[in-house]
């Protein structure tokens, strides 16, 4: 069954989103990604969309539906950061991060839910972060937007859980990406000292959890927060 399912990954042109899209392709799904610029990985359909624009989201969904079929799995991954301490954080620093990370999820999932309700099947997977529940100095806007996804998934589960639709949150910790590679070696050592696993994750370790949640084995899991953080955020 899974081979026929259509997946949309927002922000699937780089980082964790790209790895998630690649993993779905490898597992035989039909995969589309949204990107503001750049292209998704080989084997995916790339559609242009800014998640802060509801009309653009609607057009992107319509294009995917026409070319691949109804979207049954949505991975809300698109996100931005504008890190700075609270006292220096501007209104725009706060509003733009919330509008993309939380508002973008709202727009994408609202549009996706229409098709899922018709199909009486859906998988909503929201990509949060360890800092959503653990906290992080300089990231009040980002961590607030990411912790909000937990309430979002749980409320969605109560609304749509009886229709064959699940909604779950994946909370990655430190992942080996271009961003972490640029950190000074001492900083990397310091971060790794706080992680029981003693290392950063590969993006594919996050992608594997996401594809598992999308599959039949996770049909009875909803409203869950699954950390992929090497034990960093335990108990949060």
UniProtKB/TrEMBL annotation:
Gene3D superfamilies: NAD(P)-binding Rossmann-like Domain (3.40.50.720). InterPro entries: KR_dom, NAD(P)-bd_dom_sf, SDR, SDR_fam. Residues 5-178 form the Ketoreductase domain. It holds the Pfam family adh_short_C2. Belongs to the short-chain dehydrogenases/reductases (SDR) family. This is Beta-ketoacyl-ACP reductase. It comes from Microbacterium galbinum. The lineage of its organism: Bacteria, Bacillati, Actinomycetota, Actinomycetes, Micrococcales.
């Amino acid at each position: 069954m899974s081979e026929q399912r259509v997946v949309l990954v927002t922000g699937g042109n780089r980082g964790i989103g790209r790895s998630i899209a690649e993993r779905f392709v490898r597992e035989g799904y039909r995969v589309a990604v949204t990107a503001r610029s750049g292209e998704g990985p080989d084997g995916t359909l790339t559609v242009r969309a800014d998640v802060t624009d509801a009309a653009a989201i609607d057009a992107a969904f319509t294009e995917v539906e026409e070319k691949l079929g109804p979207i049954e799995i949505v991975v809300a991954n698109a996100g931005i950061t504008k890190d700075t301490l609270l006292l220096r954080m501007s209104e725009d620093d706060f509003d733009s991060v919330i509008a993309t990370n939380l508002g973008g999820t709202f727009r994408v999932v609202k549009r996706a839910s229409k098709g899922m309700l018709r199909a009486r099947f859906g998988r909503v997977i929201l990509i949060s972060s360890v800092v959503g529940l653990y906290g992080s100095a300089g990231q009040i806007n980002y961590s607030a937007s990411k912790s909000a996804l937990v309430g979002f998934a749980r409320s969605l589960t109560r609304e749509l859980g009886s229709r064959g639709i699940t909604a779950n949150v994946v909370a990655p910790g430190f992942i080996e990406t271009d961003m972490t590679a640029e950190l000074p070696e001492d900083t990397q050592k310091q971060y790794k000292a706080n992680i029981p696993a003693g290392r950063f994750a590969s993006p594919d370790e996050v992608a594997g959890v996401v594809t598992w949640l999308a599959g039949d084995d996770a049909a009875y899991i909803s409203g869950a927060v699954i950390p992929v953080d090497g034990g960093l955020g335990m108990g949060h």
